[in-house]
Amino acid sequence: MPQSQPQLHCPNLRCRAANSDRDQFCQKCGTYLPKRFLWVVGARADKFQVGDLLEDRFLFRGPRVVFDTQPGIPLKMSVELPETLVPYLKLFPYRLHLPQIYTLLSLGDSEPSLILLLEQAPLGNADLDPSNQGGLALGAGMPLFDAWANAQPLRQLHWLWQMAQLWQPLRIQGVASSLLQPDFLRVEGPLFRLLELENDFRLEPSLADLGLVWQQLIPKTGGKLADSLDGLCDQLASGDIESAEELLAQLESWIENVHKAYRVKIDIATRTDTGMVREHNEDACYPADGAVTQNSLERMAIVCDGVGGHAGGEVASGIAIEALRDHLTQLPIDDLSPADVITELENASFKANDLICQRNDQEQRQDRQRMGTTLVTALSQTHQIYVSHIGDSRAYLITTQGCYQIMVDDDIASREVRLGYVPYREALLQPASGSLVQALGMASSSVLRPTVQRFLLDEDCLFLLCSDGLSDYDRIEMIWREELLPLLQGGTDLASTSKRLIELANQLNGHDNVTVGLVHCHVTRQRQGTGTTGLNSAPTEAPAPANSTVDNTPPTVIPKTQVASEAPQPLAQKGRGGGFGLWLLLGLLLVGVGGAVAYQLGLLKLPFLNSPVADSTSSPTPTTNSPDIPPPPPDLAQAKKLDVLRLVGINDNPIEISIVKDPKALLQGIGGVADAGEGEDATTESSAQPIALGSKISIPSDSLVVIDGIFPPSIPTAPDKTAPEAPIQALRIRTCQPVTDQSEQEGAGILTPEKLDEKLEKEGADPSADSVAQLIDEKLSDENPDSASTATASSPQIGWVDRSQLESLVTEIIPAGQLNPEQQKACTPAPLEGKDIPAGAPIGSDPAP
To answer: Taking a C-beta distance cutoff of 8 angstroms, is the pair 165, 149 a contact?
Structure first.
């Protein structure tokens, strides 16, 4: 039956109030409202219309998408799960790439029909009916064949690598055919995901079949990767590549080569707290509580949640941290193969387990008295992250497209799912569903099964490690958009984010100790790749052709002979053109020799050779041609956070910019939004800033400034528009550290990196240290930031400025990901570490006095 006004009932069974599907919290009791969009699978799935309601609960919002209007009511299947659906359960550990069973419905009395509802499917707004979207953000899922042409080669290879990783486990469960269905293949940013599973039945899909699917991507592939992919498909079709391991080895060699053009920087922050109820903190973390490290040699973060009481859990978590640190920090991680890294992570877990078991035996602890701990570890190695896990402490991957739980808890509920008994939602209803089935210190290492996953990095992302003091009651899914996404977008920093997560855990949960570890991965392009052609060499990192278009028609398997017949014949064309060019060259040579002889004999007069030579210092004669039209100035309205602006003064004169502390001051009196929301962009700088915000910023011409904030903040559903009725935008800018030659006048220019190195060497500076940071430290040590309202150019200057002030000064807008190394150094504040960073202060700011 159609329903014109979608409602979402409060999951709090004591409330059950009806809310709009646009509400984030219950309008009556304030409970968070989960929005679950489910993918519909079944023979009768296409018989329903948008607006129909299944079981008085599931509302059709698209042809194959329903919305759960009563998420608080427990799910219980009325029919037994068919064997054909069991692979969904047994593949539960691969939930990052696969959807999961939400429930199974039986419709009809005389001829019952089964309708399967899948959660965590890679859905996108295109899956909703256009008239029913209403501004809802469904997800970032899109078909692989639509996204392929616009992706960089590194990401394209990353998607193929993930497909190859899934081949063997899906083949074991009899659903490898899922990877051969183009309609099922979807991506969400860096992740490859399947929309649903397809049973193999009596078929035996092979890697040759997978090669035929990948062959359809070749026309959409640019650069030398197309040639390499074509050769790889030939090897798959001919059987030269016989196993998924061989396929993965080939793809990884290409990825390693392409990734040489990228730079990966890792920042880490940790924090732990006792909580609101417990008297002792049995959690532990590494690095130590409150640490913040930026692009340092530190490559590891660990979170442990001890069990066994104050006399046990606190000891066990401490032993685990020390054991893993001692084992892993002694290894040459960058020299190890991926298999060796995984083995060493497992060995480190075994070592920690043995030490805790020995302590239990020494103290004669038995059964429930034994101490133990959970463990989750993130370890970086060049362009990849390894996550190791035991227990129910969790790891999440946060990208700009979504938040994903990486690991499956080692508890009874997850075990029931992996064994193929019941879906996860039903397993949670069983008694003791959250009881652990394994943890460090509880049993011999011979029965311990650590889980290790490997992640290749192709864009900025965030790994969150946390104990259940934060993750309980789906708090991460609830807060990630408001609290973690801004970190990726440059709106906040690690120190303040880690502190905020602890505050939210105590506010929303508070029943347990809470510990968080944040691993922020920065991936930037440095230079063009240098790969060569050929299957056995890595493909060049080249973008797709500018005129390439995405074919929206359903992909079909193209026979190899057809692909070969459509290829051009460049060799024949090249032969014809080469012969004509040779004759033309000989003709020109004869004419030149004849002219020279005639001139020497006086038979040829060349007056222009006898004319006086023009003075090179004289002004050239103006031509009558149309003058060159200068390119239009950059559109500052399109600038985003963390973009870098190049400012050039009139006639290269120094630049002075008026600034204010509060951006609202720029909007008052001109029809602006005086009561705009108190978002992160509207906040003023704390006393921890390096200078007191005053009346002006003074910088030399041709200087760089970073956009730290935009006010009013953009509307979430329309990023290119500002808040209603806001006539202008205010920008919070931060000056980059100018590398000024002290022998020249102030503002005369910027030192090149070579001159800067020579200057530092003469002054006795440490050549291994960051050059710009040394100059900054010298300046900051001699200046009092609060001594004047106009700061000097050598100190980072921050303030809110009317965007119109910059319109005539901006000559270039440089996205953060396109900065060269020298610009990155100049625009990155010198980091501080550990507890010296005040809570809530941006990384790199000076501590408040």
So the answer is: no
> How far apart are the C-alpha atoms of 828 and 770, rounded to whole Å?
11
Element (H, E) at 338: helix 338-362
DSSP string, 277-307: S-SS--EEEES-TT-EEESSS--EEEEEEEE
Which are the contacts of 320, defined by CB distance < 8 A and separation ≥ 6? 284, 302, 304, 352, 356, 373, 375, 440
CA distances from 656 to 177, 699, 701, 702, 749 (A): 65, 7, 10, 13, 16
Contacts of 165 (CB under 8 A, 6+ apart): 244, 248
Q: What is the pLDDT of residues 396-448, one digit of tens each?
A: 999 999 999 999 999 999 999 999 999 999 999 999 999 999 999 999 999 99
267 and 294 in contact (C-beta within 8 Å)? Answer: yes
> For the whole prediction, is pTM greater than 0.70?
no
Question: What type of residue is 394?
Answer: R
How many beta carbons lie within 10 A of that of residue 848, not counting itself?
10
Question: Which residue is listed with tokens 């948008």?
Answer: 50
pLDDT tier at 261, thresholds 50, 70, 90:
very high
Contacts of 116 (CB under 8 A, 6+ apart): 40, 41, 42, 85, 101, 104, 105
CB 430 within 8 A of CB 414: no
Q: Which residues, 6+ apart, have CB-to-CB distance to 804 below 8 Å? A: 728
- For 378-406, the DSSP string reads EEEETTEEEEEEESS-EEEEE-SS-EEE-
Of 643, 809, 648, the C-alpha closest to 710 is 643
Judge contact between 250 and 229, C-beta under 8 A.
Answer: no
**Confidence grade of residue 493 (pLDDT, cut at 50, 70, 90):** very high
The two counts, helices (H) then strands (E), for the chain are: 22, 30
pLDDT over 80 at 190, yes or no: yes
Rg, C-alpha atoms of the chain:
32
Q: What is the pLDDT of residues 267-299, one digit of tens each?
A: 999 999 999 999 999 999 999 999 999 887 789
Element (H, E) at 774: helix 771-782
Q: In what order do the strands lie in the sheet with 461-466?
A: 292-294, 262-273, 514-525, 461-466, 394-398, 403-405
d(CA 294, CA 84): 49
State the pLDDT at residue 573: 37
Nearest Cα neighbor of 189 from 150, 133, 242 is 150
The CA distance from 153 to 226, in Å, is 10
The total of other beta-carbon atoms located within 10 Å of residue 145's CB is 22
Closest to 140 (Cα-Cα) out of 37, 293, 280, 263:
37
- DSSP letter at 695 equals S
Looking at the DSSP assignment, which residues form a beta bridge with residue 732? 709, 800
Render 430-482 in DSSP notation, one character per residue.
STTTT-BS--BTSS-GGG---EEEEEE-SS-EEEEEE-HHHHGGGHHHHHHHH
Residue listed under structure tokens 């009881």: 435
